[in-house]
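WP5 quarterly update. Target: MazG family protein. Source organism: Actinocrinis puniceicyclus. Length: 347 aa.
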Amino acid sequence: MPGRIVLVPFSPRVAPGLVSASAWRLMTGSGAVVHTGSPDHPVLPYLDDVDVQIVVFDPKASAHEIARDLIDQAEAGASVVWIAAQDGDEALAQALGEHLAHGGEIELELLPGSYDLPGAKVLDLVAVMDRLRSPGGCPWDGEQTHRSLVKYLLEEAYETVETIEEGACDEPGPGRDALREELGDVLLQVAFHARIAQEHPTDPFGIDDVADGIAKKLVGRHPHVFGGAVADTAADVEANWDRIKAEEKGRTSAVEGVPLAQPALSLADKLLKRSRNAGIPLELPALTAEAAAQAQDAAGVGRLLLAAVAHARSLGVDPEEALRGAARGLRDQIVARETSRDATVSG
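Structure tokens (predicted):
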């Protein structure tokens, strides 16, 4: 009876000792003979430890030569196991397919030796970024700094926002494909900055440090998930987040940590949110009853804001600058209210 040929590829993104149970049984079974064209394959030492017979082909042999040899063994009744190289040995798989396509009873099987863990492909990005940044890589990538990349970080973030706001990203199709691509561009910026940071002469850090830091932050900021705290609503979660963040950073004011360089609209919104969560009452300009009545949903509010921008332009006023000035006044009002409240409590 003719035998079979089993190709066993291993993921280069996991530790060599992490072998699937089915692949391990196949490679270490009674009378098993393992073949490979990679004498330095990382899984070979583990097989050698359990006295598995290993046949290493000459690296100079062609894929068709190796395919013919494996087929001859299988035709003689052997069960041939081939450990694929880190690149998957695609040329050999194609050669085997071409030979076996002409007939015969030999079975060609694929049995993964290991499987990628979720997030494993991020390692591919790290490897590519390392190659681009290293000597002999890309001259442009090698010249970049944290500061020179700032504009790209902002551009990619805005493009992602635009893709989401255009809709159609929740259903299969071009919109969802575009979102996947834009998220990849944002991830590239993180990997790029982390790779640059890794080169610092006295205080280096890399992508693992970045990931470790945010993972620990998420655990610490979600005590209702990873601890014994209670947060029944999204508002409770948000309040807990701000409180824990303030404690971690030793903040004494609701306005600390609010970047004033952000767009004026988001700046004003952030300051109003901070004041609300801190229980600080503010004196704010009021909408007319007529304007408020016409702005009862997102579309209405959008028209109201657009009208305000148009009015500003008619007066020759930069609306971004005007709102930023008002937001700075809002920040000063929050600080003044905090100071007054602290003085009342201490008195």
